[in-house]
């Protein structure tokens, strides 16, 4: 297909297979998993679509040059040779993010400064003026990655991380990253075919991401800007077409998405975020204590939640996690319950045998996504029902 080029999407640890599947479903070519990244091919319209629709991507990069580098003169020359004034206007601000894993350069900041000099000098030579560097929220982001003696220069098409969806205006004390939430939901097998429940909803991230998955809503539909909008070749008409085409693939959802939290402030924050995401038709939020409330629906239920870890919210872990297990056993028959925690010791007090344990990270904290199957009646009865 004419106009295709190679791109790379960054993601979180363990989410590479999910992101690769997302890319294939969107229509990407030559999809290959890396470490915390997936490479793929597509055209400019696909790059717009990737930023709009990928739930588990943090960034989408467009590599523009790869070269061998043995010293700082090589770095400067190759970057200077690129036609920067053709890519963005001198009035735009820019920033450079560098990663150097090499004996030649042991300081990423030095790489960024040398690259900045080359870009500024190129502008001065061509247009007799220079763009300004802006480290916070620049118009243009340039990524430089050096591994051994290979340097790749890319344009960051996303700008701010894609976890910044644009719907979350209020957060609680320990909010979960939106990309992490979406990835955990997809790992849990959530597909919108049952009712969904988060009994400790915080600021509502799981609820909102679950609704977007269930309805196939483009995950960044509420986001106002991307870095590619500041490129000289930005095609606003094409971008509008991509948005319209993606919105036509939204589907109906015929089940319930319910959130509980015992804190009035959490319920208020969740409701405001849900309203801001235009999802109040699909999500119900109530002030209730998980340990004192009844199961919110009859029949099958898909539950995903992020209980306190004890990192920022002081609680008695042994008692708290014991109550989680007791409540699931006594109140939630017919439920597939998933929870994420970085307190691996606390999991021992749940008192239920997990059917799955998946290693993940919540920020810098190593965590586990754990599944508990709560059967209708006993396991033996469940097996008999299947036969």
TrEMBL record:
PANTHER family: RIBOSOMAL RNA LARGE SUBUNIT METHYLTRANSFERASE K/L, RIBOSOMAL RNA LARGE SUBUNIT METHYLTRANSFERASE K_L. The keyword Transferase applies. InterPro entries: RlmKL-like_Mtase, RlmKL-like_Mtase_CS, RlmL_1st, SAM-dependent_MTases_sf, THUMP_dom. GO terms for molecular function: methyltransferase activity. The keyword Methyltransferase applies. The lineage of its organism: Bacteria, Pseudomonadati, Bacteroidota, Flavobacteriia, Flavobacteriales. It comes from the Bacteria. This is Class I SAM-dependent RNA methyltransferase. It comes from Flagellimonas profundi. Keywords: Methyltransferase, RNA-binding, Transferase. Pfam families: RlmL_1st, THUMP, UPF0020. CDD domains: THUMP_AdoMetMT. Residues 46-157 form the THUMP domain. GO terms for biological process: methylation.
């Amino acid at each position: 297909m004419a106009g295709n080029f190679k791109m790379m999407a960054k993601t979180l640890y363990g989410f590479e297979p999910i992101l690769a599947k997302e890319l294939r479903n969107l229509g990407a070519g030559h999809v290959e998993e890396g470490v915390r990244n997936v490479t793929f091919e597509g055209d400019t319209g696909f790059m717009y679509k990737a930023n709009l629709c990928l739930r588990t991507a943090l960034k989408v990069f467009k590599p523009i040059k790869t070269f061998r580098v043995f010293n700082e003169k090589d770095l400067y020359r190759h970057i200077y040779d690129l036609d920067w004034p053709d890519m963005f206007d001198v009035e735009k601000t820019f920033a450079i993010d560098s990663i150097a894993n090499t004996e030649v350069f042991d300081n990423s900041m030095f790489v960024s400064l040398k690259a900045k000099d080359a870009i500024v000098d190129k502008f001065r030579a061509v247009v007799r003026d220079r763009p300004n560097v802006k480290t916070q929220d620049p118009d243009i982001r340039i990524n430089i990655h050096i591994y051994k003696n290979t340097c790749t220069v890319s344009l960051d098409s996303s700008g701010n991380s894609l976890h910044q969806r644009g719907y979350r205006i209020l957060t609680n004390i320990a909010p979960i990253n939106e990309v992490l939430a979406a990835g955990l939901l997809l790992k849990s097998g959530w597909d919108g075919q049952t009712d969904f429940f988060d009994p400790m909803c915080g600021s509502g991230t799981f609820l909102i991401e679950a609704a977007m998955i269930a309805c196939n809503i483009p995950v960044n539909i509420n986001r106002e800007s991307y870095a590619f909008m500041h490129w000289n070749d930005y095609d606003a008409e094409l971008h509008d077409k991509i948005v319209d085409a993606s919105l036509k693939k939204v589907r109906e959802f015929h089940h319930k998405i319910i959130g509980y939290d015992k804190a009035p402030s959490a319920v208020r924050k969740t409701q405001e975020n849900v309203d801001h995401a235009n999802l109040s038709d699909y999500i119900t939020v109530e002030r209730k204590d998980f340990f004192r409330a009844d199961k919110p629906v009859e029949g099958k239920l898909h539950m995903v939640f992020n209980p306190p870890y004890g990192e920022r919210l002081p609680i008695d872990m042994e008692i708290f996690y014991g109550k989680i297990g007791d409540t699931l056993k006594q109140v939630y028959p017919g439920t597939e319950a998933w929870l994420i925690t970085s307190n691996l010791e606390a999991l021992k007090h749940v008192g239920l045998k997990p059917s799955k344990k998946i290693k993940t990270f919540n920020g810098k904290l190593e965590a586990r996504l754990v599944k508990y199957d709560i059967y209708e009646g006993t396991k033996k009865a469940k097996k008999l029902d299947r036969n």
